[in-house]
């Protein structure tokens, strides 16, 4: 600060510097967060449900039959769907944070890639209406996670400036 009381104070008017964009890295790590997180959550949820069924007195064959015929509209199906959507949201968030993106282009690409993988792996797991509804909701969750990362970056930029 200068000694002259009539001089304007010094201020840093430069915004935070933008880092180099890395879209491929962001999309790949977002995909890992989405698919890996969904897989890990599904395994843990299945183990917990199998233990609960075994404690209730079911034998191994009945537990296996119950786990192979789970409906989407059940407590297990709802929890599984919510965990999958949370991981899609996390994937979109990771995609923006890692790629240093400034718009939703990278999460859109991530959502399309995730949809194509879902078509490849789970096309016959649901009927067409359920599959399309889950795909649309998952895509929107990915975009929402990306949007949250963008808003956090903008909020951080305002605080730094």
Q: What does this molecule look like?
A:
This protein is an all-alpha fold and about 160 residues long. The chain contains 5 helices and no strands. α1 crosses α4 (about 105-120), α3 (about 75-100) runs antiparallel to α4 and α4 (about 105-120) runs antiparallel to α5. The longest helix is centred in the N-terminal third of the chain and has 33 residues, at about 25-55. The mean pLDDT is about 90.
Furnish the topology, listing elements before pairings:
Layout: H1 23-55, H2 60-68, H3 75-99, H4 105-122, H5 128-160
Helix pairs in contact: 1-2, 1-3, 1-4, 3-4, 3-5, 4-5
Strand content: under 5%
State the oligomer.
single chain
Cα distance spanning the termini: 18 Å
Class based on secondary structure composition and strand pairing: mainly alpha
Shape: elongated
Which features would summarize this protein structure in a list?
161 residues; mainly alpha; 5 helices
């Amino acid at each position: 600060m200068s000694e002259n009381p009539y001089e304007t104070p010094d201020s840093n008017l430069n915004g935070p510097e933008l880092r180099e964009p890395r879209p491929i890295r962001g999309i790949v790590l977002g995909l890992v967060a989405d698919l890996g997180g969904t897989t890990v959550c599904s395994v843990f949820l299945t183990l917990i449900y199998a233990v609960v069924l075994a404690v209730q007195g079911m034998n191994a064959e009945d537990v296996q039959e119950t786990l192979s015929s789970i409906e989407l509209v059940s407590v297990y199906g709802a929890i599984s769907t919510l965990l999958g959507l949370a991981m899609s949201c996390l994937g979109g968030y990771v995609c923006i944070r890692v790629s240093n993106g400034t718009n939703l282009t990278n999460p859109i690409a991530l959502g399309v890639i995730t949809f194509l993988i879902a078509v490849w792996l789970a096309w016959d797991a649901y009927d067409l209406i359920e599959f399309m509804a889950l795909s649309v909701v998952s895509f929107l969750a990915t975009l929402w996670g990306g949007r949250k990362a963008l808003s956090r970056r903008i909020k951080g930029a305002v605080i730094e400036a």
